[in-house]
Write a structure and sequence with these properties.
Elements lengths: L1 E3 L6 E2 L7 H18 L2 H10 L4 E6 L5 H13 L2 E5 L13 H11 L2 E6 L4 H8 L5 E7 L5 H14 L5 E5 L6 H10 L6 E5 L8 H4 L5 E5 L2 H5 L4 E4 L37 E3 L20 H19 L2 E3 L1
Parallel strand pairs: 2-6, 3-4, 3-5, 5-6, 7-8, 7-10, 8-9, 10-11
Antiparallel strand pairs: 1-12
The chain binds phosphoric acid mono(formamide)ester (CP).
């Protein structure tokens, strides 16, 4: 049975907007959707839920998972999708501003899902479009990736949220998924975060200043490996050139990776996450280890995006 949820949030812009109650509600709704989607009858039912809606995926940065999981989430709900990924085929090539391009989309669709290299453009869009246009931030520069954080949060929720020690490892300076997830985990009391990176790649203070939970900064991954319940690896984000890092600054993957030489330092029931794509921070042999959950995490992204879109349109299943 479908009902209208009076507490819907019609935009997904950043992590700060979600309360713990919102997050737990989304996790439970995602479980419910997965259950329904496990049968052919259930999938047919889900396809009717938003079949009167249209969406555009406007991606001005490369993507595999976020693009495809949103596109498939729309398909699951019966939403018709269009896309612009290559603006050499749009009227931006004739000098149209991005804002005008997006105002144009809003004449045709109900939902705009946008990935953009700027940290702030998502806020400009949100301020300039009518309230009935749903907007999702699918990645905003080095700043935020709130829907990745939602799927990461859901994956941790599946293995138990309470009193967890969670290590973020790698390029935390430019890793927007880490920034967004740290802000969500900040809502779970009893959590401890470890930010593990060489000094030059350490997470910025603007995130640390918002944390109310315990946290530690270190450059020594091996030292904390045996203490933590979740390890969240990220790659070098060297597509960004302007954060005080130059071409020669790299992360030594001998010190900041999981491989067959150090995997046994992890607890037996720890989980290994990665937003993907990976380079060599997790070796392929680790995929067979029972603690490797990053492919499951990737799949979770499609289902929690179904749940997110439903709540944004104020629709619940009970
Ligand atoms: N995790 C993530 O955002 O992956 P893509 O860049 O492939 O979308």
């Amino acid at each position: 049975m479908i009902t209208i949820n009076a507490n819907n949030q019609s935009r997904c812009i950043n992590s700060q907007q979600y309360s713990l109650e919102n997050l737990l509600h989304l996790c439970k709704l995602t479980d419910n959707i997965r259950n329904i989607a496990s049968t052919s009858e259930g999938l047919k039912y889900l396809k009717t839920i938003l079949s009167d809606k249209r969406a555009i995926l406007y991606f001005k940065q490369a993507s595999t998972r976020t693009f495809l999981s949103f596109e498939n989430a729309c398909h699951i709900l019966g939403i018709s999708c269009s896309e612009i990924r290559d603006t050499s085929t749009s009227s931006e090539v004739k000098g149209e501003s991005e804002l005008d391009a997006i105002k144009t989309f809003s004449q045709y669709v109900d939902l705009i899902i946008m990935r953009h290299p700027s940290s702030n453009f998502i806020y400009e869009i949100s301020d300039n479009l009518p309230d009935d246009i749903r907007i999702i931030n699918a990645g905003s520069g080095t700043n935020e990736h709130p829907t990745q954080a939602l799927l990461d949060f859901y994956t941790i929720y599946k293995y138990g949220l309470e009193n967890k020690k969670i290590a973020f490892v790698g390029d935390l300076l430019r890793g927007r998924t880490v920034r967004s997830l740290a802000l969500l985990l900040n809502k779970v009391s009893g959590t401890k975060l470890y930010f593990i990176a060489p000094d030059k790649f350490q997470i910025k203070n603007d995130i640390l200043e918002q944390l109310n939970i315990d946290y530690e900064l270190t450059d020594d991954f091996e030292k904390v490996m045996s203490e933590v319940d979740v390890v969240y690896m990220v790659r070098l984000q060297n597509e960004y050139k302007n954060e005080g890092i130059n071409e020669n600054d790299i992360i030594d993957t001998n010190k900041y990776s999981i491989n067959t030489n150090n995997i046994n330092k992890l607890k037996d029931n720890a989980i290994i996450l990665h937003p993907l794509p990976r380079r060599n921070e997790i070796s392929v042999e680790i995929d067979k280890d029972k603690r490797a959950k990053y492919w499951e995490q990737c799949r979770n992204g499609m289902y929690i995006r179904v749940a997110l879109i439903m709540t944004m349109f104020g629709v619940e299943i009970i």
